[in-house]
Every structure is written in C-alpha cells, then in structure tokens.
Design a protein that fits this description.
Elements lengths: L3 H28 L10 H30 L2 H24 L5 H24 L3
Length: 129
C-alpha cells in the first residue's frame, strides 16, 4: 500500500501530540497547577508550550503532508513526514530542558512543512490542465 509510509508518519505525529498532552497533565499534578490555569512553575509552562506549539504545527503539517502525498509522492511525503516528527521530538526535548535551545528542532520541522506545502502547490499548478 502506497500510503502506508506517510500514514506511519501521521500516526507518529499524532502520538507525539498525545504524549505532549499527557505530559501537561503530568506536570499539572506534579506542580499542583489546577485547570483551567495555564501558568505556573517554568517546568509546567514549558510542557504547556510544547503541547500548544505541537498542536499549532499539526494544523499546517497534516494537510500539507497529505496534499504532497496525493500530488507529488507518497514515499517522499512519508520520508519528509518522519523528519518532521524527529525534529518535533528534538524540539520538545530541547524546550523542556532549556527553551533557548529549541530553535533547530523548530526550524527543521517548519522547513519540512513548507517543503510539503510548496511542492504540493507547485504540483497542483502544473497539473491544472
């Protein structure tokens, strides 16, 4: 099945999001931050931002990935999708330890999303006949 590779990237991206959500809950308990509060100790706030930023990035990444898969290549979509997931894992790891080091993970993931989106757009324009 051609779509299996990008499907794996999608599933891993969603599992990363689920992990980030659970991590926020774990930090709420550890630091006694009662919902609906979104501020607290720096450890909680970093976990909260990792979760929120992952959600924000999924909104661009997932449609861009599947448009790329449909219009360009399932294999390369899956490969770029896996790089996106790895970059987001690295982003989360860095942000949770030291927010100042989050840049490379964020940058690589953002570049992956833009590549997927722009290549899908180019392919759609070329095939407009």
């Amino acid at each position: 099945m051609e779509a299996a590779f990008p499907a794996i990237a999608t599933i891993l991206a969603l599992l990363l999001y689920v992990w980030a959500a659970f991590n926020v809950g774990r930090m709420r308990g550890r630091h006694n931050v009662r919902a609906p509060a979104v501020t607290g100790p720096p450890e909680f706030e970093r976990a909260f931002r990792v979760h929120q930023n992952t959600q924000e990035q999924l909104v661009l990444f997932l449609p861009a990935l599947w448009l790329f898969v449909m219009l360009v290549s399932a294999f390369w979509g899956g490969a770029i999708g896996l790089v996106w997931v790895a970059a987001r894992v690295y982003y989360a790891y860095c942000y949770l330890r030291d927010p100042e080091t989050r840049g490379p993970g964020f940058g690589v993931a953002a570049a992956c999303s833009l590549i997927l989106l722009l290549a899908a757009l180019a392919s759609a324009i070329v095939n407009l006949r």
